[in-house]
Design a protein that fits this description.
- The protein has one domain: UbiA prenyltransferase (Tetracycline Repressor, domain 2, Orthogonal Bundle).
- The protein has 15 helices and 2 strands.
- The protein has a two-stranded antiparallel sheet.
């Protein structure tokens, strides 16, 4: 079947950056996926940077800049996760061509050439830099430091069974950015929230990775999905529980009020539901559960935002 995207078209470029940017109940939706940092339906509203911005606003008892910070985070994440995804598609083009679900992506399908994709990556990176320069110097340095991890991530699946850890380090960097932007520092609260976010990413990206477990085994791609195998649900109990405990510890350090704890309880209940519902042999179900993490993040974000509002009044 002919692709609906013509070579070099604007739509093909858009698919390189975001396959699945949407809106969820008026929230910004931007996705994270295993072979790219901005795909397939995990909502931006649960982004660590947004969660941390809300938590930091509660700590500072100042909501005046929160709407602007969230808007800038959205713009920056849109550009930089698009750039990260483009980088992943460039580095993974040979692997993607061997997997049924990914071989129709623009680069392996020949719709966009590698030089064209590189040009597109540079444009997105420059947009991200422009957004980053709106923040303080400490936040700028913190943002630039993340590029090392983002650049290394695509190669991890070739050398370690734990590429999801590196993805967690990259995607959760926003947990540090929220405090860097709002408070001009990274303290224990930010670091604990960062660790909790990493555990969450390892869990939900393991679910995502089960979609391609069979193809990955054939082409030699490593993942926690293949590592855990039939014991995935037990592993998810460990990582999701760790995420809840660490995020709870961050709330405690921040002196969060009861709305934040209600949000955390709802978040934990959603994670438990995911574990009960999961069937690793059903790729379509794995994708639905993976995408449902945007709802889990919205529950947590709503609690943090409500707490920040109460702390500011």
């Amino acid at each position: 079947m002919a692709s609906p995207y013509e070579a070099g078209s604007a739509r093909s470029y858009a698919r390189v950056a975001v396959l699945g940017v949407g809106l969820l109940g008026g929230s910004f939706a931007l996705a994270a996926r295993r072979r790219g940092l901005a795909r397939e339906g995990v909502g931006y509203a649960k982004s660590p940077s947004t969660l941390n911005a809300a938590l930091a606003a509660g700590v500072s008892h100042n909501l005046s800049r929160l709407p602007l910070v969230v808007a800038l985070f959205f713009a920056g994440a849109f550009a930089m996760r698009g750039a990260g995804c483009t980088w992943n598609d460039i580095t993974d083009r040979d692997l993607d061509a061997k997997v049924e679900r990914t071989r129709s992506r623009p680069i392996p399908a020949g719709q966009v050439s590698v030089p064209q994709a590189l040009t597109f990556l540079i444009i997105q990176a420059l947009i991200g830099l422009l957004v980053l320069l709106q923040f303080n110097r400490f936040a700028v340095a913190t943002g630039i430091a993340s590029l090392v991890i983002v650049a290394a991530y695509p190669f991890m699946k070739r050398i370690t069974w734990w590429p999801q850890v590196v993805l967690g380090l990259a995607f959760s960097w926003g947990a540090l950015m929220g405090f860097a932007v709002t408070l001009g520092r990274i303290d224990a609260t930010a670091l604990v929230l960062y660790a909790g976010s990493i555990a969450w990413v390892i869990g939900y990206d393991t679910i995502y990775a089960h979609q391609d477990a069979e193809d990955d085994a054939l082409i030699g791609v490593k993942s926690t999905a293949r590592l855990f195998g039939a014991h995935t649900q037990q592993a998810l109990i460990v990582f999701y529980a760790l995420a809840v405990v660490l995020i709870g510890a961050a709330l405690k350090l921040a002196g969060a009020g009861y709305p934040a704890w209600i949000g955390l309880a709802a978040f934990a209940a959603h994670l438990a539901w995911q574990i009960r519902r999961l069937k690793i042999g059903d790729p379509a179900l794995c994708l639905r559960i993976f995408k449902s993490n945007r709802d889990a993040g919205l529950l947590l974000f709503a609690g943090l935002l409500a707490d920040a509002v109460m702390a500011a009044v």
